[in-house]
Write a structure and sequence with these properties.
The complex is a heterodimer of chains A (about 300) and B (about 280). Chain A is mostly helical and about 300 residues long. Helices cover about 75% and strands about 0% of the residues of chain A. Chain A has a two-stranded antiparallel sheet with strand order 1-2. In chain A, β1 and β2 form a beta hairpin. In chain A, α4 runs parallel beside α8. The longest helix of chain A is centred in the first third of the chain and has 39 residues. Chain B is built from 15 helices and no strands. The longest helix of chain B is centred in the first third of the chain and has 34 residues. The two termini of chain B are about 45 Å apart. In chain B, about 40% of the residues are buried. The mean pLDDT of chain B is about 90. Classes of the chains: A mainly alpha (about 300), B mainly alpha (about 280). The interface between A and B is large, with 90 and 92 residues.
Chain lengths: ~300, ~280
Amino acid sequence: MSLSTPRHEISRTPASTGFAAWWSRRQRSLAPYLFIAPFIGLFLVFFAYPVGNAAYLSTFKRHGYGAPRYVGLQNYVDLLGDGRFLHSLGNTTYYAAGSLFVLSPLALLIALALNSPQLRLTGLYRLLFFLPFVTSAVVVALMFYLVFDKTYGLLNNALGVIGIPHVPWLESTSWSMTSILLLGIWTYVGVNALFFLASLQNVAKELVEAARIDGANSTAVFRHITVPQLRPIILFVAVQAVIGSYNLFAQPFVLTQGGPEDSSMTMTLYLYIEGFQFSQAGYAAAIGFSIAVIIIIVSLVQLWLLGAFGDE
Amino acid sequence: MQTRKTASTATINILIAIGGLIIAFPYFYMIISSLKRQDQIYQIPLSMIPHPATLFSYRQLFNEFSFPRWFANSAIVAIGTTLGALLICSLGGFALAKYEFRGKQIIFILMIATLTLPFQVLLVPLFKEMVAFGWINTYLALIVPFVGNAFGVFLLRQYMLAVPSALLEAARIDGASEWTLYWRIALPLVRPGLAVVAILFFTNSWNDFLWPLVASSSDDMYLLNIGIATMSGAYHIEYGTIMAASVLATLPIAAVFLFMQRQFIAGLAAGALKG
């Protein structure tokens, strides 16, 4: 009680000098700075500085056990001639192409089915298709050991029933990346279907009705009304699919460690190996930036396409 | 016409049912395998019923691995990150939505910059920074760098824009401090936005793998994902035990999802907005 008395005094006499009076006059103009300050502080320490440092680090190279030496842009030049890096770029791009041309159209088909009034149990399917997306990638990868195992896996045993011989999903250089892609499709097709579904439900019903009355069949309605209205979300899903591909890490790390013979090495996995197993911080930083460049280009293409379509 | 309609109804229902089955089956088999005896997993033909059903794998998990510790670590880190992000991002979002001040434009540009750069760029330098801070293998390294998130600020700014300025002005006239405006008026009004941000951060933190892999180095500081991944790296792979761990690691996130489905979907829509 006695403690609160002095504070009370000050607030009752705003004219008095001192911090409290000053504060009550200025708080409105200072508050936004104080409110945003924690974010800015964290941003500077844990984003801006590390990004700058990454650029700096990427100009150094370590030879043997000596201290890293300044090499200018040599790391980037070396990347272009590094077979392992190019291999990881190829694998990642293969995965990105699969996401773009297999996963995304499949997701759209599922969304169309989920949007159909003839479908029963829609709520249940929505839950189910979303579940892999929120399951940790490590758990999903471990789960798929029991799917892809050559002898004891679900997939080969199911294929065996219809007479298809065992496929070495994870053990062969020609199958490993495809297996990772199948896993990716299993994981992300549902969530992308839900993206499509959300905007399908926004397709203007009146337009569809009007087209029907004018005699358009389902195919024509789909091509000329549904698809144009879905364009932004199609673009979004496509770009997310590509960007997500370049982040691929946990699945190959757990399932194949990038093998056999680097056949499932992805860019992020290669970055990790160079940076944390070979202690080539500079080289790893350069790989990080090359992933960033790819992602930025893809994002710019998205913006450009959105702008181009927006003008229609 | 009627038969065609019936046929297409049947086709759609059957195709989606098959799709649902393909999604569900690995989960089902994970649970089954966690209840099987170790040697029954490696038995041809594969059996879909654990015979006999046993909790051996679960007992093994608790007796031979630091599973409860990993679980607690994951919970501490996910909850810590979520609470921290809610505070920092809602404060920033409130400032950006409800005040005019110098430097606002620059802050916007900075935020967009963070949204385009992938985390891979940060991996090595952030690790070095954590080493310099002495934070490696502590909760700090797993929480603090991620609470000041530009996307979170951006998202909550969108929700804060809907808080009526007249309401804030009225409170000011009544003598409320700026902090009171934030804490007592704005925050309660943007509760749905807070739920979306909370879910995004909790899920991301719980499922993250790359950063905790480099930022933690001892068994007692492992998060679930790292701990489980090391189980499979052991020379003697006991698959039933790994599946038991996977089941228990999936339960919390599945439960959150089940009860907060609506906010999850809203979070997705927000993600679409980000792109």
